Amino acid sequence: LRIEMMKSVYVFLIAFFLGGKAVAQCNSMQIFVEENSVCAPKMVRFNIVNPPDSALFYWDIGKGSTSGAETIYGYYDAPGVINASIEVKLSNGDVCRITKDSASVVNALPQPIFSVSRTKLCNGPDTIKLVDLTPNIVVRNWVVDGTSYNNANQAIVHSFVTTGLKNISLIAADINGCQGVNASKDVVEVFPNLKFEFAANKLSGCVPL
Hints:
Layout: H1 2-28, E1 30-33, E2 37-39, E3 42-49, E4 56-60, E5 65-68, E6 71-76, E7 80-89, E8 95-107, E9 114-116, E10 120-122, E11 127-132, E12 137-144, E13 147-149, E14 155-159, E15 164-174, E16 179-191, E17 198-201, E18 205-208
Parallel strand pairs: 2-8, 10-16
Antiparallel strand pairs: 1-3, 3-6, 4-5, 4-7, 7-8, 9-11, 11-14, 12-13, 12-15, 15-16, 17-18
């Protein structure tokens, strides 16, 4: 009886030791995300810190549970919040469950819009005023008929030096660091100035040709 009791105590101590070791292993692991705020579309990398040897990993990064390695990648093309979790099955059969809510935020790209004061101009002194109407923009760059205005104000004035159809692009970055582009073709047309020529006429004097 005494020997049986000693065996029971021995088994209990081993189980207690192994259980404590498993808890310590679980507590030492955490989910690391490469970027906690990204712009869609984006590939995001997740990995587990302090992974044990010979373990199995089952990830859920907002796309359902999937088996993988210590590192996993997820592709996100729509805005939203990513909650990440992982089940780590240890070599002794124990399972660690680690979660990280709001592991990363996927932000939508801004959709730049702008207004144009005039779309038909005469060559020479005529100018146009362009105004960025995109909300929450902190940095904007304009390209107007090949002329760049970097780190520009919300409104700019431009004078064209040649005639024809003109393209205008607005590159706008928002408060999340996400950048959108509006490349519009044939926004403005600049017409050549009229030229008048006259000739002498015996009956009417000076007449236009």
